[in-house]
Design brief:
Length: about 550
């Protein structure tokens, strides 16, 4: 077994190994040999395994898990194409279902496309039908249809007249045959009438007998019903009588109860009045007691005031006696003090002189202080005046600065006002230009609209001419009267009798005479007649009402 020499410091084991070479120790580091442990490879591996056991176990678990996942994926990849398993059958069914749904979706898309085409065709047909109906509602087409209707009416009238003529011609020479046949038919009809009359008489007799029997049965039934009605009426009358009787008894009972209730109420009102009277008497007695108490209280107050007055008078009398006694004592004291007063007067004169001298000296000092104070005040006033002048100068400067600032502000406001006016003027010019451009655009759009309208009218005129040409061709084949249709096919919409205007989009207006006739120009009224109301009130005619507008 190979040995490995390792220097382990601060280890658990101490000592030396069995095979120690001197040159390895001499060539090693300067480590104390007693602190070096020599371990074998197996022990070192065991130590490393004990230290890294957790990481190794985690790594092992991770490898096992990844191996299981790999094997599971491999199994799934192998099994997923098998058709004899449950999963394979389920996948096959799902694939079949998906294919079937895709085919159904394709079929539905085709059906939707066909339905969309069908609906688009229906919408197109509906739009064409609506356009046709709208085209038929125009005045010119309506007038043309009215003319066509008049043509058909005239053709039908001519056909009826021709048929009548042919019928009259064919009826000539057949009158004798028809008279003979009519006579035979008349005789045969008389015989048939007699037979029918006999049959009707027999039938009428049978019906009369049956009706008589019915009348008898109905009369009996009516008598029976009337008798039952009479009996029922008597029963109802008895019930009504009993009802009225009971109602009268009930009303009397209610009336008696009302009387009793009224008496009870009156009695209760009397008792209430007695109670109120008793309450009133009690209140009056209480008021009387209160009045007596108030009077007694007032009497006690008067007695108290009289007693206080007597005590005050007694006190004054006592005070007067004390004053008299004190006056006597003071008089005795004054007589003893006259001598002392004379002595005191001398001392007082001396004191007065000293006091006057001190007073004069004090007055001089006060005047001096007043002069000094006056000088100080004058100096202070001069300083204050100077300060006020300086303050006035400063305020004047401030006012000048404020005036200058106000002037600058006003000039700035004027400048802003001029700039605002200039901006407003430019804005108004821009508005005017915009308005001109909008008007130009509107005129261009109106001209474009007129152009498109003229093209549309031209197209409509061409369509109308094509439609009218077909109708005229069919009418000519049927040998109809062509005059109304030719009049309706004239160029220009409007249906008037005026000239055709190209500038008015090909219109043919009508002009009305503003006189009492009210006719349309250029026709003239051969006989003068007055039209009631406005001239336009009598423009209608029978042809207009019938739809003949040519």
């Amino acid at each position: 077994m190979a040995t490995t020499t390792l220097a382990v410091t601060h280890g658990r084991r101490r000592g030396t190994t069995k095979d120690i070479h001197q040159e390895d120790i001499s060539n090693g580091s300067e480590t104390d040999a007693r602190q070096v442990a020599i371990v074998t490879n197996n022990e070192w591996t065991r130590i490393k395994d004990s230290l890294t056991r957790k990481q190794q176990e985690e790594e092992k678990v991770r490898r096992e898990r990844s191996e299981r996942i790999r094997m599971h994926e491999t199994s799934r990849n192998i099994v997923k194409h098998w058709e004899n398993t449950i999963e394979g059958q389920r996948q096959k069914k799902l694939q079949s279902k998906r294919i079937r749904e895709e085919k159904e979706e394709e079929e539905k898309k085709k059906v939707d496309v066909e339905e969309a085409k069908f609906q688009a065709q229906k919408r197109k047909e509906a739009i064409e039908h609506a356009k046709t109906l709208q085209y038929y509602q125009t005045d010119r087409v309506k007038g043309f249809h009215g003319a066509l209707l008049l043509t058909e009416v005239l053709r039908e009238r001519d056909a009826q007249v021709e048929y009548k003529k042919k019928k009259q011609e064919s009826m000539k020479g057949r009158d004798v045959i028809y008279v003979e046949k009519a006579r035979e038919d008349y005789e045969k009809g008389l015989l048939d009438d007699h037979e029918q009359a006999a049959k009707r008489v027999a039938a009428n007799k049978t019906v009369a007998d049956f009706q008589k029997q019915q009348i008898t049965e109905r009369r009996d039934a009516f008598d029976k019903l009337r008798h039952e009605d009479i009996q029922e009426g008597k029963t109802i009358q008895q019930d009504v009588s009993e009802f009225y009787k009971k109602r009268t008894e009930l009303e009397e009972k209610k009336h008696q109860e009302k009387i009793e209730l009224q008496q009870t109420l009156l009695k209760a009102l009397d008792e209430k009045k007695e109670i109120e009277a008793m309450k009133k008497r009690d209140e009056e007695e209480q008021d009387e007691e209160i009045r007596l108490f108030v009077e007694a209280k007032k009497k006690m107050m008067r007695m108290r005031k009289e007693q206080e007055r007597a005590l005050f008078k007694q006190f004054q009398d006592y005070q007067g006696s004390m004053v008299g006694r004190l006056a006597k004592q003071m008089q005795t004291k004054v007589d003893d003090e006259d001598k002392r007063i004379a002595e005191v007067q001398g001392e007082t004169e001396t004191k007065k002189k000293l006091a006057m001298k001190a007073k004069e000296q004090q007055l001089a000092e006060r005047q001096k202080a007043i002069h000094e104070h006056r000088a100080e005040m004058m100096a202070e006033n001069r300083g204050k005046k100077k300060e006020e002048e300086e303050r006035d100068i400063e305020m004047l400067k401030q006012r000048i600065e404020l005036d200058m600032k106000f002037r600058r502000d006003m000039m700035e406001k004027e400048k802003k006002k001029r700039e605002t006016a200039r901006e407003l003027s430019s804005f108004r010019f821009e508005q005017i230009e915009q308005r001109h451009s909008v008007e130009e655009q509107l005129r261009a759009e109106r001209a474009e609209f007129d152009k498109k309208r003229a093209e549309s009218l031209k197209t409509e005129e061409e369509q109308f001419k094509a439609y009218a040409a077909e109708v005229l061709q069919e009418a000519e084949k049927s040998n109809s009267c062509m005059k109304p249709l030719q009049a309706a096919v004239r160029a220009g919409a409007g249906g008037g009798r005026g000239p055709h205007f190209d500038g008015l989009q090909g219109l043919r207006p009508s002009f009305q005479a503003m006189d009492e006739t009210g006719v349309q120009l250029p026709s003239y009224c051969q006989q003068r007649r007055r039209v009631q109301g406005r001239p336009s009130d009598q423009l209608g005619s029978t042809q207009k009402r019938m739809g003949f507008t040519w």
